[in-house]
Design a protein that fits this description.
- A hairpin with a 2-residue loop joins strand 5 and strand 6.
- A six-stranded mixed sheet has the order 1-6-5-4-2-3, with helices on one face.
- Helix 3 crosses helix 4.
- The chain starts with a helix and ends with a helix.
- The protein has four helices and six strands; from the N terminus they run ααββαββββα.
């Protein structure tokens, strides 16, 4: 019995976990509103004429590709869907990640878009639904459209 007690004492050890400071006001604000943000990494002198949307097979949201296509076409940018970046016939391509969330039904939880010209990152944009907002169940295509707008530098 003594050997088991000593072994358990030696194996248990101690640990210390440092957590980041959490601002409760910021946390509450993020929970009650949907957020769309964008960042230009390089100047976008002119918008692309054509973009390739590189299909992400891990995204299971049915409105993802049609929503992206419609958002670019609405802005006068022809959108072509390709299976891999190397199949893109032009210099502009878009990579995306979208995740569903669930609260009584599924909705677009997050979306992240990246715009590249050749191998250079030009801009990024993202969407994150608020957890406590009633508008999180809005139309997925509208959410995607707003993220594409940010990706292209719209205010």
């Amino acid at each position: 019995f003594l050997c088991i007690t000593i072994a358990c004492g030696l194996l248990a050890g101690c640990s210390s976990v440092k957590t980041p400071d959490i601002d409760p006001v910021e946390m509450a604000r993020d929970s009650v509103q949907n957020a769309v943000s964008g960042r230009m990494h390089r100047p976008l002198a002119q918008k692309p004429g054509t973009v390739c949307i590189v299909r992400n097979p891990r995204v299971k949201i049915g409105a993802a590709i049609p929503g992206l296509r419609d958002a670019f076409e609405k802005r006068g940018i022809h959108a072509v869907v390709v299976e891999r970046a190397s199949a893109c016939p032009g210099p502009w391509r878009v990579h995306y990640v979208m995740r569903r969330s669930w609260d009584f039904t599924t909705y677009l939880g997050t979306a992240e878009l990246s715009l590249y010209k050749n191998q250079t990152l030009v801009s990024t944009a993202s969407y994150k639904s608020g957890k406590l907002t009633l508008t999180k169940w809005g139309r997925t295509r509208e959410r995607i459209d707003s993220v594409v707008g940010k990706l292209l530098g719209e205010k």
